[in-house]
Amino acid sequence: MNAFSENLIVTALTFIYVFGLVAVMNFCVNRLNLPQDISRKITHIGAGCLIGFLPLYNDSHWSKYLNVAIFILWIVLLIQKGLFASDEDEAVKTMTRTGDKRELLKGPLYFVIFATICGTLFYKTFPGIMAIATLGWGDGIAPIIGSRYGKLKYEVLSSKSVEGSLSMFIAAFAASVFFVWLIIPSELNLMRIFLLSLLATVVEACSPKEIDNILIPTAVILAALTVI
Length: 228
Hints:
about 230 residues, 2 strands, globular, mainly alpha
């Protein structure tokens, strides 16, 4: 099998994974009464796990960049759905906090735009993997823990909790260690990952709602390229 065919098959698997995840979350929301804010963050985490497919791509062919095909499709879908979708649309139910379709044009859209950047400009690089791992897992776990178990509240530009921020750091660090080891094991540096995870946690703690999906990966990539 040639490299193009290999990469095409892996890309097809990413499509099956993503649309399967959305379908499962839609079922959980409709049939199991899973809260939409939980569904949104599980989807967020699941999207971050897409980098787990990167080791399957054959780097000898340009088609390795098909890894972002699913993200490009979702950029188009999120814009379309954010403007025109009905309240019963799967994406509206699984990717928004309140059921307002316009939320799709904020956090979820920012996420897939940065995922596209990381899958092209920073393909299989330490900064790109760190950005998606910290954003996908760290920022995915923090609101779930913070909203339900957060007792020690603080506020910078939005309300956060110590418990949420601590879970953000732990999840970001653990996910980053795993994905760096999985994709580029030669660059596994625990101290560097620790510092970037800490930076991501601080940025998330100080970020206004909705734009943390921009600020976290930007800060992580810039720091990884320059000072850390």
